[in-house]
């Protein structure tokens, strides 16, 4: 039997102290259901320390992302207020093991959402959309993991920054995007890389995360998943994502 609480403490401490750990699956089997239970228990520890749940991140919703980490199932994780960075903020690399950054689209919910919904029903619950970047920092050595490992590790989520909100009634199914590091384009893509249309990621969030959490709440942010491969952050870098029609969002690394 898997000791959920022990695993949760191990992964929570690894995140808290920015220290890499061996994969759980290298010492024995871990089911996907138990992995989500570990994720829930580890985030519960953060909530007990005063953090608040503010949304959900979807992951491995594009081929580029699946290929980069060699896992090809859609996963999800929990976002807390402590993970949010302000636009232009400076991220202290010391607080992470080996952080990467990736371009995403964020949804802001105005109504709760859960279960099997159509894309139109999901979008009816959306107040706004925005360009966003997620900072992922696998707590596993060498950023290597199997599906249950990454799920237990909150799907690598470590931080996120969201740009200005725009109307969700515009067509965002195929918006060009460029992620630049110090003015140099490092990843170029389109929101279409996210399951063909990011609204499908929101539908998946309602089905997977909504079911597990009861529902996705009004006011929550849902990250649709990286549209391109992620970039490994180095001290001194300034990273900016610009998305067609939606504007830019940036951070710097200190
Ligand atoms: C897993 C998390 C994937 C995304 O947007 O696809 C993810 C990882 O790449 O470490 O956040
Ligand atoms: Mg991501």
TrEMBL record:
* Classification via Gene3D superfamilies: Fumarylacetoacetase-like, C-terminal domain
Molecular function GO terms recorded: 2-oxopent-4-enoate hydratase activity
Q: Which GO terms describe its cellular component?
A: cytoplasm
Keyword Transit peptide (UniProt): no
The segment(s) forming the Fumarylacetoacetase-like C-terminal domain are 97-253
Q: Which UniProt keywords apply?
A: Lyase
Which residues belong to the signal peptide in this entry?
none
Q: Which Pfam families match?
A: FAA_hydrolase
SUPFAM superfamilies xref list:
FAH
- Record flagged with keyword Lyase: yes
Q: What InterPro entries does UniProt report for this protein, alphabetically?
A: Fumarylacetoacetase-like_C (IPR011234), Fumarylacetoacetase_C_sf (IPR036663), Hydratase-Decarb/MhpD_sf (IPR050772)
Q: What is this protein called?
A: 2-oxo-3-hexenedioate decarboxylase
Q: Which organism is it from?
A: Roseiarcus fermentans
The root-end lineage is: Bacteria, Pseudomonadati, Pseudomonadota, Alphaproteobacteria, Hyphomicrobiales
């Amino acid at each position: 039997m898997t000791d959920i609480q022990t695993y949760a403490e191990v992964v929570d401490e690894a995140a808290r102290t920015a220290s890499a750990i061996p994969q759980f699956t290298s010492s024995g089997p871990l089911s996907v259901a138990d992995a989500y239970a570990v994720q829930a228990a580890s985030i519960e520890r953060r909530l007990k320390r005063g953090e608040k749940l503010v949304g959900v991140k979807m992951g491995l919703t594009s081929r580029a992302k699946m290929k980069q980490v060699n896992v090809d199932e859609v996963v999800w994780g929990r976002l807390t207020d402590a993970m949010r960075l302000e636009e232009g903020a400076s991220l202290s690399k010391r607080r992470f093991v080996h952080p990467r950054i990736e371009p995403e689209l964020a949804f802001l919910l105005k109504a709760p959402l859960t279960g099997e919904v159509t894309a139109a029903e999901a979008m009816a619950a959306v107040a706004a959309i925005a360009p966003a970047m997620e900072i992922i920092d696998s707590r596993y050595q060498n950023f290597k993991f199997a599906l249950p490992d990454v799920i237990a590790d909150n799907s690598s989520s470590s931080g996120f920054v969201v740009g200005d909100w725009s109307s969700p009634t515009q067509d965002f199914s195929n918006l060009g995007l460029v992620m630049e590091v110090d003015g140099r384009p490092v990843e170029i893509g389109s929101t279409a890389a996210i399951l063909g249309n990011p609204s499908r990621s929101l539908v998946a969030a309602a089905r997977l995360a909504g079911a597990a959490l009861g529902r996705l709440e009004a006011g929550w942010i849902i990250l649709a998943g990286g549209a391109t491969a992620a970039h490994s952050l180095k001290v001194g870098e300034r990273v900016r994502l610009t998305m067609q029609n939606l504007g830019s969002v940036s951070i710097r690394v200190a």
